[in-house]
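Quick review question:
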């Protein structure tokens, strides 16, 4: 693959999400024939995700999305954070899974998958709330038959020694990128009309470069990660996720001294 290809992922899909915004988004997805990854919360208990009254046909809609090729991700269990463990990704400091004993993680995964099963939905992938999970989570996912993880800052998907295929997720908006598989992750509950319009324009611009998770998994399943993959992921993590707060702090310190100098003069 000699150029960038993009995946789209929407997190926090649940019965109480912002349905007016979602309907507008879905109209764009249909128009451009985009098959996104939808991260579905099995039993949402997170207050910030309660925007509307529960949609009475939610699970029917999830089954429909899956039937037309959307990838349905298991997005945790109840989306409630229980600690400040950053997990393997070290992108955020809040977690529903990382650091918990194996029995607790197993109970949550089993309960979430049971809800999916009762509603006739298959978990095509794992999407951890706030990117936070650990090696115990990965081991359990494999035991439960979930062999795809949507996460990581690598430029290309790969399959690890457990047989789990990692489809990276590195972006939160579209931008021109070098060759690779780039997943753009969105959280739509607070989108404004302007953001919906911007999303439509981005789809129009990038439509020919947008693919779907099933195609990516078919092409890259079995590929092993290289040293270049790991170096690129580390650079992305350091430059885009670790250094910005330090750069901001340094800028504030410089500005403070500059302000003091002006006063002293």
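Suggested answer, residue by residue:
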């Amino acid at each position: 693959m000699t150029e960038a290809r993009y995946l789209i992922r929407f997190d926090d899909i649940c019965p109480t999400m912002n349905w007016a915004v979602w309907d507008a988004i879905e109209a764009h997805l249909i128009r451009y024939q985009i098959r996104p990854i939808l991260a579905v919360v099995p039993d949402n208990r997170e207050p910030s995700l309660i925007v509307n009254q529960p949609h009475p046909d939610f699970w029917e809609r999830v089954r429909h999305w899956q039937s037309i090729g959307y990838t349905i991700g298991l997005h945790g269990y109840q989306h409630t954070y229980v600690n400040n463990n950053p997990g393997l990704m070290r992108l955020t400091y809040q977690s529903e899974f990382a650091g918990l004993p194996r029995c607790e993680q197993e109970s949550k995964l089993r309960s979430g998958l049971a809800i999916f099963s009762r509603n006739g939905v298959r978990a095509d992938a794992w999407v951890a709330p706030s990117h936070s999970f650990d090696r115990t989570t990965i081991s359990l996912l494999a035991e439960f038959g979930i062999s795809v993880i949507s996460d990581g800052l690598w430029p290309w998907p790969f399959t690890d020694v457990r047989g789990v295929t990692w489809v990276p997720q590195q972006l939160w908006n579209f931008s021109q990128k070098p060759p690779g598989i780039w997943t753009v992750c969105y959280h739509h509950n607070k989108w404004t009309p302007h953001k919906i319009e911007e999303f439509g324009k981005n789809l129009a611009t990038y439509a020919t470069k947008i693919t779907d998770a099933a195609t990516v998994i078919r092409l890259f399943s079995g590929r092993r990660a290289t040293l270049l993959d790991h170096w690129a992921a580390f650079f992305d993590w350091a430059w885009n996720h670790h250094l910005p707060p330090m750069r901001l702090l340094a800028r504030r310190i410089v500005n403070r001294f500059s302000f003091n100098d002006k006063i002293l003069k």
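Why it works: DSSP finds seven helices and eight strands in the chain. Residues 227-264 form the longest helix (38 residues).
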